[in-house]
Design a protein that fits this description.
Elements (H helix, E strand, L loop, with lengths): L7 E5 L14 H16 L3 E8 L6 E8 L6
Antiparallel strand pairs: 1-2, 2-3
Length: 73
């Protein structure tokens, strides 16, 4: 599979992404994405990236968060 044919893409979390339907099976991670991630992004304490399907670009299939508080100065 070439990169152009990959059915997913990574994006910064934005308001158009549907967080309410996301479920990875770990309650604390689900809750973080649905409730806290957007607030952390607004306060600029974290950057949350989401993986979305190119066919359904608002539907999140995975995510990761980078937090400045986790990096030693």
């Amino acid at each position: 599979m070439t990169p152009g044919n990959f059915p997913f893409q990574i994006e910064l979390l934005a308001q158009h992404h549907s967080r309410s339907q996301f479920s990875c099976g770990v309650k604390s991670l689900d809750r973080y994405l649905k409730i806290q991630a957007g607030q952390d992004v607004k306060r600029k304490v974290a950057a949350t990236f989401v993986m979305v399907s190119k066919a359904e670009p608002d539907s999140i299939v995975g995510f990761y968060t980078l937090s400045s508080t986790a990096i030693d100065p």
